[in-house]
Specification:
Blueprint: H1 4-10, E1 17-21, E2 27-35, E3 38-41, H2 45-52, E4 59-66, E5 69-75, E6 92-93, H3 129-134
Parallel strand pairs: 1-5, 2-6
Antiparallel strand pairs: 1-2, 2-3, 4-5
Length: about 140
């Protein structure tokens, strides 16, 4: 979801699709869906994930530069910049419009839920000394019944 401040300042400039552009001018089209709570960038992230091989997640910084275009920078989970593949001409990834369900007034049905294929959860846990010594990660130490 884009921040509410962005919605108020630039929401009227965002159409049904936006373009994400990396440093090497590779482009990724992403579907925009809206509801009363905000603007969501939904379908199209899979191409970005596949292109950069983001199987374990990453940080994506997006900067709006106008006319439905965002410049993007990617870092791995540890903050290291990801190498941007270079192609001549640059790669272009488009959303399959035949796979987009028709919605009335381009709204996101409430409550909004991400597509399981285009959304990943991140879980952070501080490692305890026992886990470091034993080499075993304990995620839940109490069983709730």
């Amino acid at each position: 979801m884009l921040p509410m401040m962005f919605k108020h300042d630039f929401g009227d400039q965002i159409r049904q699709y936006v373009i994400m552009v990396d440093r090497k001018e590779n482009t990724f089209e992403v579907l925009v869906e809206r509801n009363n709570q905000g603007i969501y960038l939904t379908r199209g992230w899979g191409a970005l994930s596949d292109f950069y091989k983001l199987s374990l997640g990453a940080w994506v910084t997006i900067v709006y530069v106008g006319e439905g275009r965002f410049n993007i920078r990617l870092m791995d989970r540890f903050g290291k910049k990801l190498r941007c593949p270079e192609f001549s001409p640059p790669m272009e990834f488009l959303v399959d419009r035949n796979a987009i369900p028709v919605t009335l007034f381009n709204v996101v049905p409430g409550p909004f839920a991400h597509d399981e294929l285009n959304f990943q959860h991140t879980y952070k846990k501080r490692l305890e000394s026992d886990e470091m010594n034993d080499g075993v990660l304990v995620i839940f130490d109490k069983c709730i019944v």
